[in-house]
Automatic annotation (TrEMBL):
Species this chain originates from: Paenimyroides viscosum
Pfam families hit by this protein: Hydrolase_4
First and last residue of the signal peptide: 1-18
InterPro entries according to UniProt: AB_hydrolase_Est10, AB_hydrolase_fold, Hydrolase_4
Key words of the record: Hydrolase, Signal
Gene3D superfamilies, alphabetized: alpha/beta hydrolase
Span of domain Serine aminopeptidase S33: 173-331
Protein name (record): Alpha/beta hydrolase
Alphabetized GO MF terms: carboxylic ester hydrolase activity
């Protein structure tokens, strides 16, 4: 996991704390491109601390390992990313320096940002960072609607509150969805999964089972209802988050929305995906998944499948495989919306149909030309490119579909 996050992060300096406190922004000058980042500097107990965001990577709140400022020169390091920074304060508004990661060096100059006025914020929502617990933190897109809030649960892997998979894909799908729903006066809460918290805080990734995700979702539901006072909690789960969400929606939830959620158990989905991508590994894949379905740890794993089936991942997969989405969604007696797209290469339309069949009272909508990360695409090339296009908006019909469903159910 130590290599899961690519380049980004920060810097700062100043002869007085008052000068350096605030928000700074700039670009890491990578050949043929610029990687934007934002640095936040504050003071705690007489000591400076800093965190940074990498907007294009959808990463927020990364803390530096060490900070030193001497003779108008700032020195920073981040041990987990093997990164250092050295910058010189040229005036009260600018720092010029060099960002290094491993053997690579890039220019990184920062400029201090002016404080934003309230008038610059969205007219329909105010984005607040909330800490439900130390390991569960996220953004509340708060609107004037104090009765209904939508909890958005992320898909598999180290996927953060914005819908970006750290070090792999940056598309801001959840951020766009939350903003669009907020524009329609629905408050939305998006959060970082525990694995994202561990990476951001430079901690070892704990061994987790599937149940922990369900427990976390239920903790957040309780927080939204009892601490923030929302009457109607809408759970919307994406991909893996669909199974997490439906499993967590048996109490205190007004409605459930499945976004590109599977109808089959994950072993069936993985067989289909891997058999398409690497047919030469069919026998190995099927053998491993059969043993995992039986609850057995697999010691002998083909090196080409290690990233997915590494031994430390297997307890999570065993728990996940044991859960059938059709069984879980059938247990729900609340309004249900099942959404999928015709261009989803990961979870096909038939998966939505299985969920709908398992709970016939549900509503199902298949959106033309929408892919797995909610983007509108025409062909396979656009489909793949959209996973790393943070500027491409989500499909316009997705927000319309969700809003229509909620209004039909008087939510």
């Amino acid at each position: 996991m130590k290599q899961i996050i690519a380049l980004f992060i920060l810097l700062f300096s100043f002869t007085s704390f008052a000068q350096i406190e605030g928000t700074w922004s700039g670009n890491i000058e990578i050949p043929n491109q610029k990687l934007p980042f934002v640095l936040h500097v504050s003071k705690e107990n007489g000591q400076l601390k800093a965190t940074s965001d990498s907007p294009n990577q959808g990463v927020q709140g990364i803390a530096m390992s060490s900070i030193r400022f001497e003779n108008n020169t700032l020195f920073l390091s981040h041990d987990q990313m093997n990164m250092t920074y050295e910058g010189t304060l040229t005036d009260n508004q600018n720092i010029k320096g060099t960002f290094k990661q491993g053997t690579y060096s890039f220019t990184l100059n920062l400029k201090k940002e002016a404080k934003k006025n309230i008038s610059e914020q969205s007219k329909n929502s105010n984005v607040k960072e909330l800490k439900v617990s130390e390991e569960l933190q996220g953004n509340l897109y708060e609107t004037s609607n104090k009765e209904t809030v939508i909890l958005l649960i992320a898909g598999s892997g180290p996927t953060d509150r914005n819908g970006n998979t750290l070090g792999m894909a940056v598309n801001n799908s959840y951020k766009f969805l939350a903003e669009g729903l907020a524009e329609n006066n629905y408050s939305v809460f998006t959060y970082d999964k525990r694995v994202v918290y561990s990476v951001k805080s430079q901690q070892e990734i704990p061994s987790l089972d599937f149940q922990h995700g369900i427990d976390d979702a239920q903790t957040i539901i309780h927080y939204l209802k009892n601490n923030l006072g929302y009457k109607n909690i809408i759970v919307a789960g994406h991909s893996e988050g669909s199974l997490v969400g439906m499993s967590a929606s048996k109490k205190d939830v007004a409605a459930f929305i499945s976004l590109a959620g599977a109808g089959n158990s994950i072993d069936v989905i993985l067989k289909e995906q891997l058999n398409k991508q690497a047919p030469m590994l069919n026998d190995d894949t099927n053998k491993i998944l059969t043993q995992l379905k039986e609850g057995k740890i697999v010691k002998d794993v083909n090196p080409m499948l290690q990233a997915l089936f590494a031994e430390q991942n297997q307890p999570f997969l065993i728990d996940w495989i044991s859960r059938n989405p059709q069984t879980e969604i059938a247990k729900l007696n609340i309004p249900i919306l099942i959404v999928n797209g015709t261009k989803d290469l990961q979870v096909g339309q038939k998966e939505a149909e299985l969920l709908h069949k398992a709970n016939p009272k549900s509503s199902m909508v298949i959106i033309e030309k929408m892919n797995h990360v909610f983007k509108e695409v025409e062909n396979d090339q656009q489909n793949m490119e959209s996973y790393n296009n943070p500027e491409l908006p989500i499909h316009k019909d997705l927000i319309k579909t969700i809003v229509s469903f909620l209004k039909q159910n008087k939510l």
